[in-house]
Write a structure and sequence with these properties.
A four-stranded antiparallel beta sheet has the order 1-2-4-3. By secondary structure, it is of the alpha+beta class. Strand 3 and strand 4 form a beta hairpin. The chain is globular, with a radius of gyration of 12 Å. 35% of the residues lie in helices and 18% in strands. Helix 1 packs across helix 3.
């Protein structure tokens, strides 16, 4: 998969897991291609996820780790979400 496809699949996976509590527009704004990441947090990742927009994060709430694991499982292929800090996560390939 290309990084553009992974970004789209990540958005879809987040919506499937968190869509009942987070608006789709927020999800769309929160997941970016690493080349479009203004903070340059994870240039070698496949997607960058910003939590400051309203997406829950597992750093501030460890109980959400299972939910983010579900997001990882829903991204096709061998990809996983890794929390960088409470504001940013990234998608990497195993």
């Amino acid at each position: 998969m290309t990084k553009d496809q992974i970004v789209q699949q990540t958005k879809r996976a987040i919506y499937e897991v968190f869509g009942d509590i987070v608006d789709k527009d927020i999800i769309d704004k929160s997941v970016v291609h690493p080349l479009d990441d203004p903070g340059e947090w994870a240039p070698r990742s496949n997607a960058v996820i910003y939590h400051e927009t309203g997406l829950p994060n597992s750093c501030d709430n460890w109980q959400l780790m299972e939910k983010w694991s579900e997001v990882s499982d829903k991204i096709p292929g061998d990809y996983y979400v890794e929390a960088m800090n409470s504001a940013v996560s990234a998608v990497y390939e195993l």
